[in-house]
Amino acid sequence: MKGIDKFKTAEMDLEFDRRHIWHPYTSLLHPLKVYAVRSAAGVRLKLESGQELIDGMSSWWAAIHGYNHPQLNAAAKHQIDQMSHVMFGGLTHAPAIDLCQKLVSISPEGLEKVFLCDSGSVAVEVAMKMAIQYQHSKGNTNKKKFLTLSKGYHGDTNAAMSVCDPVSGMHHLFQDFMPKHAFMDAPKMGYDYQLRQEDQQLIAQFFAKNAAEAVAFILEPIVQGAGGMRVYAPNYLRLIKQYCIQYDLLFIADEIATGFGRTGRMFACEHAAVQPDIMCVGKGLTGGYLTMAATLCTANVAHTIGRGAAGVLMHGPTFMANPLACAVASASIDLLLRSNWEQKIKDIEQKLTLYLAAANSLDRVKEVRIIGAIAVVETHKAVHVEKAQAFFVARGVWLRPFRNLLYIMPPYIIDAVDLQQLCQAIVSAVQLAELFKND
Ligand SMILES: *Cc1c(COP(=O)(O)O)cnc(C)c1O
Questions:
Q1: What pLDDT is attached to residue 8?
Q2: Counting runs of H as helices and runs of E as strands, what totals does the chain give?
Q3: CB atoms inside a 10 Å sphere around CB 319
Q4: Which of 16, 35, 83, 239 has the most CB atoms around it within 10 Å of its CB?
């Protein structure tokens, strides 16, 4: 095999990739084109071809400070010389303690207990197990359901998938293997949408019908991400939280996409001044360096679980509190807090609004939605992903649309010139019929 390496070409590598390596939501029978990246720095991805692309994705909400950041690199290098990992059963370490102190200090009031997880989906699994154990501890063993919103996204593991939107989450594929939960109609879109009487009635009826057998309501506050990039009003959130209190259900905020400033507030719950009982964070937590997430909860939740039959929270992953990830996450939170991030996100929001204004009047565009450092152009027809990607790469930008959604969520360090180029690429793309599917 060694001999072959010498002759190995970039094309052979890509051929191996096509034949043997699964990418997210892809087929090995009909793999989509992928681009090989050599390195990344700031807001630039450098391809193996030598071409540089402006990154408009933050690697799925994660790389909030951009790539190859000197302070995050330094934190990782420092930590790797101490230890990369030790088990968390019976041991603890400064990187975990520092990180959890920071998480508690920036999180909404009341969230003071932290469970460190390996990924966002796991954080959601842990949140759901916390809620079940909490209700069991209180003797509510008849409660067997979660309440959630349609068009939500909470991850790809089984329990997390069971509370994702049934249609876009393809629940029919897994229906025999998945618990059935209760889905409320997705909130009407618009941050400034004024709830009507029918909206309030719908929520009231939903709780009246389902709350008795429910352990918790789980949702993405203010922005529903991968389920449709939908922005909704703080009043919805407030009302749902009120009903959770009334019916004694836990309120779980999945802030994995929205956390760490992305929507203009540190956590999206703050738009409505609601305090979750349980909150999941991930994605931006390590500044996009390593996989790590966390599930925070109140003292009430933690102590009630502790008084239950098991007496312990039944979860403990091998790589729990990985010191390397903790050290980078701590450094990333420090960077954020020292960065005048609120002003930065406000500037990005204004510029996205300005540069995407031209999209509003285009025939193919259904709606433009902007909040914080997130911009979404929803089109009437579905995007042809492979063709659109090729178009964007040719324009020097990295954007990856899905379904009928073209969106930008850049690293917070992006400047106006790069932001404009990303927006212009989208405005140009929606004018090209060949980038859209016909049915
Ligand atoms: C991405 C995401 C998850 C899942 O996180 P992974 O790290 O991909 O497992 C869960 N909830 C929300 C809101 C997300 O955006």
A1: 67
A2: 15, 16
A3: 17
A4: 239
What number of other Cβ atoms are within 10 A of residue 186's Cβ? 18
Residue 62 CA, ligand 1 centroid: distance in Å: 10
Q: Are 430 and 379 in contact (CB under 8 A)?
A: yes
Please give the DSSP secondary-structure letter assigned to residue 148.
Answer: E
Q: What DSSP character marks residue 33?
A: P
d(CA 78, CA 87): 19
- Name every residue whose Cβ is closer than 8 Å to that of residue 390 and which is 6 or more positions away in sequence: 33
Token reading at 137: 């501890």
Query: What is the amino acid identity at position 333?
Result: I
Give me the long-range contacts of 342-347 (CB less than 8 A, separation at least 24): 342/261, 342/264, 344/412, 344/413, 345/261, 345/262, 345/264, 345/372, 345/373, 345/412, 346/264
* Atom 5 (ligand 1) nearest CA: 120
Residue (of 258, 277, 254, 219) closest to 374 by Cα position: 258
> In this structure, are residues 428 and 363 in contact, taking their beta carbons and an 8 Å threshold?
no
The single residue of 2, 5, 6, 25 carrying the catalytic annotation is 25
Contact predicate 40/55, CB 8 Å: yes
402 DSSP β-pair partners? 405
Annotation marks residue 254 as catalytic: yes
CB atoms within 10 A of CB 175: 10
How far CA 389 is from CA of 32, 34, 83, 95, 432, in Å, comes to 10, 9, 40, 39, 13
Helix, strand, or coil here: 66? Answer: coil
Helix locations, 225-313, DSSP H: 234-246, 299-306
Per-residue CA distances from 97 to 297, 386, 415 (Å): 16, 44, 34
Which residues of the chain carry a pLDDT beneath 70?
1-8
State the DSSP code for 221.
S
Per-residue CA distances from 295 to 112, 190, 264, 313, 315 (Å): 10, 28, 21, 12, 12
Q: Could you read off the pLDDT of 247-286 as tens digits, one per residue?
A: 999 999 999 999 999 999 999 999 999 999 999 999 999 9
Q: Considering only CA atoms, which residue is closest to atom 3 of ligand 1?
A: 155
Write phi, then psi, for 9 (nearest 5 degrees): -110, 165
Q: Which of 67, 134, 153, 232 does the annotation list as catalytic? A: 153
Strand partners, 47: 37
Question: What's the farthest any 2 CA atoms get from each other in the chain?
Answer: 73
CB 252 within 8 A of CB 216: yes
> How confident is the model over 326-366, as pLDDT tens digits?
999 999 999 999 999 999 999 999 999 999 999 999 999 99
Cα of 371 vs its chain's centroid, Å = 15
**CA 154 to centroid of ligand 1, rounded, Å:** 5
Q: Of 321, 264, 245, whose CA–CA distance to 290 is shortest?
A: 321
